[in-house]
Amino acid sequence: MSKEAQMSVRRSLKSIRDRxxxxxxxxxxxxxxxxxxxxxxxPIELLSAAYDEGHRDFGENYVMELVxxxxxxxxxxxxxxxxxxxxxxxxxxVAGVPNLAVxxxxxSVKLATKLNSACEAADRKNPLEVCVQVNTxxxxxxxxxxxDECIDLTRHVLKSCKNLRFRxxxxxxxxxxxxxxxxxxxxxxxxxxxxxxxxxxQTKATFEMSMGMSGDFPLAIRCGSTSVRVGSSIFGAxxxxx
Length: 242
What we know:
Layout lengths: L2 H24 L7 E5 L5 H9 L4 E4 L2 H7 L8 E4 L8 H7 L3 E7 L2 H14 L5 E6 L16 H11 L3 E7 L10 H16 L4 H5 L2 E3 L6 H6 L4 E4 L1 H4 L7
Parallel strand pairs: 1-2, 1-8, 2-3, 3-4, 4-5, 5-6, 6-7
């Protein structure tokens, strides 16, 4: 991996951080959203370049790729799993990545139950944080529960999954959409969860709204995002040939 490629990651990372901070300031947010650097298909040398710039939150979409990468990188990285997770891969993911920080894509009672069991089997010291993924665009190609299902799924995580900790909600906006519709739908889901479910004060104060990617994170920040997932704008176009 060339030094120029690594320098490019460092420059791009700084640029994205600056843009996120500027958008947060524009909308008078108390703090800038977390930046999750989405590193799927990227070699560990590029992740290391971002790590050397002080970055610690990385997102991966594929279980086997994350299980392969995690042992080769520093243990203080906070890994976010942000892809479609099959219930039969939960055990491999949890056992293979001890520093897995959060699974952002819990979209069914079955998946939450399997993750809970996987955490128990792996004897994790702390509960695994999870976000309930909501399909706010209504597209069949996207994962996520329906907006009207998020209350019941959240209740299941809170009441029946002692090895999980509910962190908030996550969505993927409609590609190319320049309207805030999808993000406003997630904000509406958040309001319903806060109204209908009794949450701890800590959970209320740190309620996650994971929304916004390379093409739409400014719009997501406007709508209240607390965590944005940016990949190609940091690491360049993805290589799926392998």
